[in-house]
From TrEMBL:
It comes from Chaetomium thermophilum (strain DSM 1495 / CBS 144.50 / IMI 039719). InterPro entries: Tim10-like (IPR004217), Tim10-like_dom_sf (IPR035427). It is found in: Mitochondrion inner membrane. Heterohexamer. This is Mitochondrial import inner membrane translocase subunit. PANTHER family: MITOCHONDRIAL IMPORT INNER MEMBRANE TRANSLOCASE SUBUNIT TIM10 (PTHR11038:SF16). Pfam families: zf-Tim10_DDP (PF02953). Residues 16-78 form the Tim10-like domain. Its main location: mitochondrion. One of its GO terms (cellular component) is mitochondrial inner membrane. Keywords: Chaperone, Disulfide bond, Membrane, Metal-binding, Mitochondrion, Mitochondrion inner membrane, Protein transport, Translocation, Transport, Zinc. Belongs to the small Tim family. It is a peripheral membrane protein.
């Protein structure tokens, strides 16, 4: 209704946008698992459970990964909006 001269996205475009967002989140999750596991987990697998140090490291690594992802995502959205590619779902 308030598209400000822009056509509203169709259902197919909305579905494609959601599918793309899910793909980005899945890729980010895979990268986070790979990076944080390599950084935090002992490669000798001496115990079946995570040690306290490993658990804390994984928690911090994941938090930093999500924070960085959010900062980058926000910046890309600002740049897209400034260029007229604002997300109007």
């Amino acid at each position: 209704m308030f598209g400000f001269g822009r056509p509203q996205p169709t259902s197919a475009e909305k579905i494609a946008a959601i599918e793309n967002e899910l793909k980005v989140v899945a890729e980010m999750h895979s990268r986070m698992i790979k990076v944080c596991s390599a950084k935090c987990l002992d490669k000798t697998y001496r115990e079946g459970e995570l040690s306290k140090g490993e658990a804390v490291c994984l928690d911090r690594c994941a938090a930093k990964f999500f924070e960085a992802h959010q900062i980058i995502s926000d910046q890309l959205q600002k740049e897209g909006a400034a260029r007229g590619f604002g997300g109007g779902m």
